[in-house]
Amino acid sequence: MKATWFHHPQYCPRVLARRVTDELLDLLFLLGRATAARGRYYPLYRGFKSSTYYMAAQRLRRQGLVVSSTRARDAPHLRLEPEGLQQVSAALHPDRFWRRPWLGRWYVLVYDIPESQCTYRQILRVHLKRLRMGNLQGSVWLSARDVRPDFDDLTRVADLSAYAFLFEAHTVLGQTGKTLAAAAWDFQQLYRTQAWLLETLIAARQKLAGGTWTTDQLLALLREQQSAYLTVMDADPLLPAALWPDGYLGPQVYQAHQELVHAIVQHL
After folding, report:
1. Could you tell me the residue range of the domain that residue 217 belongs to?
2. Measured in whole angstroms, how far is the alpha carbon of residue 175 from the centre of its chain?
3. What's the rounded Cα separation, in Å, for the pair 34 and 32?
4. Same domain flag for 76 and 99
5. Which of 142, 151, 233, 246 is the most exposed place for a label (fewest CB within 10 A)?
């Protein structure tokens, strides 16, 4: 039987599931406060924020974005932390993204952030790149992945909805999926770096097979190649196969990297 995909532009299952969980946590918190009060009046702390806020803030922190509240009329302060500090890079398992079917839907983020909030805008751009979104034009960003959960987190914690709109589109200016992808991501630069990395990985494996290596040398090679792989692949949007440009080297790079890692482990 063919699977039926649930989809509604206004309702995202992941967002709904998160809200149900957060509401249950809030309910447990309120019950705990009421139990502790033993029937006495016990008001909530004036600065109380729901679990929805705290869980969203924690997800953003894991992605490397720290948000600090400010006065009501000001945008929240954004601060970047090293990506991958508390999470595994998606580049280590790119096949999970490549195998996903593309259902022909684009998620288009459009924002207009005042010049007075230039720091907010600059950090937001970096964060969107970390989410592997493509810059289609100026303040227009594109994703083939459903980014509604990410937009929901940014709205709840960083007040992004005050400056931005998230659209869902099946067509954008009548362009094909591959044409839009080519406009939003710099695949020429990606091809150059991936071609260099592919040559480097193949050469390293040949060198490994033809010599004697100490444990320290093997570990140094492993760290060096892992760092180079993550640097190059973190710029890859990891799009579904239907949107790959001609000559895309992502799968070859991933396979060569896996083969080199396996060969190093065998020599240890």
Report:
1. 187-267
2. 25
3. 5
4. yes
5. 246
